[in-house]
Specification:
The protein is of the alpha+beta class. It has five helices and ten strands. The protein has a single domain, classed as YbaK protein, CATH 3.90.960.
Length: 157
Amino acid sequence: MSANVYDRICELLTRRGVAFDVLEHAPVYTSAEAAAVRGTTLASGAKALICKADGATVLFVMPADRKLASKAVRTARGWKSLRFATPEEVLELTGLKPGSIPPFGSLFGLPTLCDEHLGDNERINFNAGDHARSVSMRYVDYLTAEQPELGQFAELA
């Protein structure tokens, strides 16, 4: 399914008239490895996290140098519980393994909540459904293509 997700990303971006670059590279499994192989800053990585919030599933997107501000988000949203989806849940929902999830919840029928600090970067980079393939695009184009809910969802790691 990962090639399918990549194809769906390309189709979405092309349909929205968004320019993007694709980089094929050695497989990477951490945000730091991804930034190194891409030759970009860690902060420009659009880290996508699938979480369970009071039974609902959501996709958080944030700069890769930050972490989910779980307690603050839970309080702000009035959620009783917030946890990361298990690798099995991620696979079932997306057909992908954690670390290869693109920042497009819309591809999986999930709401996308994007931390506004990602906008500190003119360009963002992310894994495109594959540990060995990355996409780079302008942040403003990401907003156009995905139309995520913006907010404060992350804190410094």
